[in-house]
């Protein structure tokens, strides 16, 4: 099992990188006839976007985490520790990554950088950028519209609440989590939820990814617990209930421990809709209680 705590830290630094860099705005809109036909993706989210806009046939290699959709050409290439020589062996026209890869420009390979999204607009912009660069402008526009429509439908289905529900989003079983300053946190805020972790990182010293402890969570006593560590750490509603003291949590007693797919909950690509639908469904099932 990969060390998810290390991955959490990598995610945090990726969020910082957003403030220091941005997507490659110099990339021209590709004519379908002249679009790059040999693409390497070193970002799982970018890989999902490529396939969703119809550019999957142009992808010859992806990193070891790009496990969706089924059939992606996974390799041992790494987006965290890229090997330029290994990347170049695939003779790509275009390489997508979450941070710049030094050395690609020197050998004439275009590097499109798509850092971690910090807003929904970032998600849509990246999809449209990939569509433009790969000759799938129309497909990308249709995907963005479909995502926006589906997300709006979830929001419209939610009950009106005078008192917001509180939640805890678990990244791994060492109690790393996210605050509202992260993209994942923004998803929950959109759905009207209150994040119990915000007070644990008030000044952003943990980059929005603080590590909590049992005492903190016992005091916070969230209404809902979302588990984004069902794959990495084999956590479930059952394992959470077995943790010392956790059976007393409101979320556990009321059956409001929601098991998420780790990948869906951590990527800001097309399956963002699936993540929002899962959270929205859990929220909608909890009866609204009037204030006071």
What does this structure look like?
The protein is 38% helix and 10% strand. The chain is of the alpha/beta class and 292 residues long. It has two domains: 133 residues, Rossmann fold; 127 residues, Rossmann fold, CATH 3.40.50.1980. β5, α6 and β6 form a beta-alpha-beta unit.
The neighbouring-strand order within the major sheet is 2-1-3-4
**What is the chain-wise order of helices and strands?**
HEHEHEEHHEHEHEHHEHH
Whole-number mean pLDDT: 91
User: In this structure, how is the largest beta sheet organized?
Assistant: 4 strands, parallel
Q: What's the gyration radius in Å?
A: 20 Å
Shape: globular
Tell me the number of structural domains.
2
Helix percent band = 25-40%
Q: How would you classify the helix and strand content by structural class? A: alpha/beta
CATH homologous superfamily heading of the largest domain: Nitrogenase molybdenum iron protein domain
How many helix segments? 11
What percentage of the residues does DSSP assign to strands (E)?
5-15%
User: In total, how many beta strands?
Assistant: 8
Assign the CATH class of the largest domain: Alpha Beta
Distance between the termini: 46 Å
Under CATH, the topology of the largest domain can be stated as Rossmann fold
Unreliable runs: 13-28
Give the name of the CATH architecture of the largest domain: 3-Layer(aba) Sandwich
